[in-house]
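During the no-cost extension, the postdoctoral fellow (Dr. R.K.) reprocessed legacy sequence entries with the updated structure-token encoder. One reprocessed record is reproduced below for audit purposes.
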Amino acid sequence: MSSFIVSCLNPIRPEYPLKKEIVAWDLQSSLRLQVFLRTASDRMAKLACTMCVLSIFLFFGGNSEQLIAQQNGHYLQGITGLENGSTLPPGVYLSYLPYLNLVDSFKKSDGSTLLDLDLKVVAHNAVYQVTTKKRILGATYGLSFIIPIVNIRLQADTFDKSVQNGGVSDLFLAPVVLGWTKAKAEYLLDYGVYIPAGSFDPNSPSNAGLGFWEHQIQAGATYNIDKKKLWNASLLSTWEINQSKSGEDLKPGPMANFEYSFGRRFFKYQMNAGIVGYAYQKLSPDSGSAVSPLTRGSHDRSFGAGPELKYTDVKHRLAFDARYEPQFGVETKTSGSVVVISITYLNFFPPK
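Re-encoded structure tokens follow.
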């Protein structure tokens, strides 16, 4: 997830209790609910670019009843936007980044609405990132660390609105963040891991953590279209490789996220405004004996798009970002909108 720091924090360069009861069906009742889910020099820079080009919370609702769905991954869809294929300039960056998912419905495998919902899920992210002056394979080297605090972490098969266990969620560490700049293009390649530090009970439908380790690989690119580098476009691919969940025979399937942007810089490069979006797809089904028979062999997906505005106040060493993405084309997942806001303290390293 390290590149979302770039998207939300990257300075402009010249060069998320139900308000009403939800109607659901108990699996033991006469109306049996069945949801099927269809559901790394130049060579390294080229690898990042190639991966990018080749790439072009799960939520559930109810009271004491159950709604069957796919397992969630850690990555938050729509968390990045403008310039998300770039790394930050050398320096230290501290950010507060709240992510809100405003859920209004649950979609079936054919995209139609199964349930109308009114649910707000919020992740308060404390972010630290550093980009050093050290070079590896011609790229700048950096790392990032994220501490998320959630009001609830929706994760698997059931959701009971009366059980909402918030707190510190699973931590994210990216020990390798590499960035290249080639003419008008910038490339990104990083590796990170989610550490299951959040509380997790396999018998509870709601936990602060998800209960499993996850590897994350990202590759992306940002391209400055014109000579003045005012118009810009970016693409970031994020690959989630999940491990088995603690205390149960269940392994979430691998997931792919693709986030894109198109924007223009204004006010002496201090502002960047444009359109951003994402596409999410589970690549293979969840596995293990604990997978519900109703979801075995299925996949889920979602899309989102909307406006973003970034502003960098270099004089006061602050950067601000706001993004809003309504979701669409959702299958076997909750649907609604994503809101991301951030404020960042910038401590640039002076050039040599």
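The chain has one domain: 2-348. The domain at 2-348 is CATH 2.40.160.40 (Porin). The remaining legacy entries will be reprocessed before the final report is submitted.
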